[in-house]
Amino acid sequence: LPSQQKGVGMHEPLVDAESFPRSDIDLYQVRTARHNIICLQNDHKAVMKEVEEALHKLHAREKEKHAKDEAEALAEAMSQNQSLPQAFAKVNTVSPGSPASVSGLQVDDEIVEFGSVNANNFQNLQNIATVVQHSEGRPLSVTVIRGGRRVHVGLTPKRWAGKGLLGCNIIPLQR
Q: Which residues form the PDZ domain (predicted)?
């Protein structure tokens, strides 16, 4: 409130000891100022309430979105596990320094595709041997299941210090 009003604020009395309006201040100016301040405080409260409600909605939406994302990720993980293709063979040894080792093939990898060989056309290990001999020096696409996940490996059969062109042992899976 204006300084010429003798320090009268929001709560000081506007009447004297005998309940008459004070003559040392401009009552109209004090009451108008008090009214304007109260209106501004009410506006401030209303705006802060809106902000609070908007924040609650925002956080609720974020929480919902997070829960939905988690549910979708879980559903995707579940469907991925169910949609893993049929493996037909398994790697049971990998020699260090061999083409198989260099490509990242690991023991216990279950083979789903080995070049053109897959679960639908695999009869015996001779199928894989034929593909390996025809692909010497050329990269083969090999898909394996490792730890419940599909993994692609680029394997190039070639001569190396050890036996064979791969340096790993593959055994058929009994299903």
A: 56-148
Model's pTM, two decimal places?
A: 0.52
Judge residue 143's burial from the number of C-beta atoms within 10 Å of its C-beta, 0-12 exposed, 13-18 middle, 19 or more buried: middle
Q: Is 88 exposed, middle or buried (0-12, 13-18, 19+ CB in 10 A)?
A: buried
SS3 (DSSP) at 173 = coil
Which tokens belong to 86? 């049929």
**Residue with the two structure tokens 């696409």:** 141
The radius of gyration of the chain's CA atoms, rounded to the nearest angstrom, is: 40
d(CA 36, CA 91): 83
Nearest 5°: phi and psi at 114? -130, 95
Take residue 114 and report the two structure tokens written for it: 């080995």
Cβ proximity of 167 and 101 under 8 Å: yes
Low-confidence ranges of the chain (pLDDT < 50): 1-2
Q: Is 155 helix (H, G, I), strand (E, B) or coil?
A: strand
3-state helix vs strand vs coil in the chain, percent to 5 = 40, 20, 40
